[in-house]
Design a protein that fits this description.
5 helices, 33% helix, alpha+beta, seven-stranded antiparallel beta sheet, globular
């Protein structure tokens, strides 16, 4: 299965199947990356939107992820809002989503070009997984802050090494 199957002019793309593949791909990747980095279930974490970073506390070391906040949802409002459409989100997140926005425009996919999507978590998860597929993300991360749920793609992961902690 390729990262991005480009539709040919002769063949119509089944976008529902393509979207399901994106969800399955991210489920598989989300099972892999915590194991790869030695993270146990529900590690402590801290994210910094301005720096586009997520820090996860593992038992042996911290793991640093470069992230993109794809968007937010609110159960109260019943919608998902893409980060590129939310002025409260630092602009680098919207810029990182240009590949998604462009793909939506090129393929006439309103899900990827409409600023506010009616619905809740299922719609937000679909948008997150599509974005992750198009960004070639390592995985995804979701956080809940009161009524707002934040949906992140993990673009790069690495162990954090404190040079002062090394013996020589």
């Amino acid at each position: 299965m390729s990262e991005q199957k480009k539709p040919s002019a002769k063949q119509a793309t089944d976008w529902a199947a393509w979207s399901r593949e994106a969800v399955e791909m991210m489920q598989a990747r989300n099972a892999q990356w915590p194991q790869q980095f030695g993270l146990q279930a529900n590690p402590k974490y801290h994210w910094d939107l301005g720096r586009a970073l997520l820090e996860l506390d593992g038992p042996l070391h911290k793991v640093i992820a470069t992230v993109c906040l794809v968007g937010t949802s609110s159960e109260q409002e019943g919608s998902f809002v893409w980060s590129w459409a939310n002025e409260a989100i630092p602009k680098q997140h919207g810029e990182a989503l240009e590949v998604v926005h462009d793909f939506g425009r090129e393929n006439h996919l309103s899900l990827l070009t409409t600023a506010r999507i009616p619905g809740g978590r299922p719609e937000a998860l679909e948008c997150l997984c599509i974005a992750a597929r198009l960004q070639r993300a390592v995985g995804t991360f979701i956080d809940q802050q009161g009524d707002v749920t934040l949906y992140f793609t993990l673009l790069h992961l690495q162990p954090a090494v404190d040079p002062a902690a090394l013996p020589n």
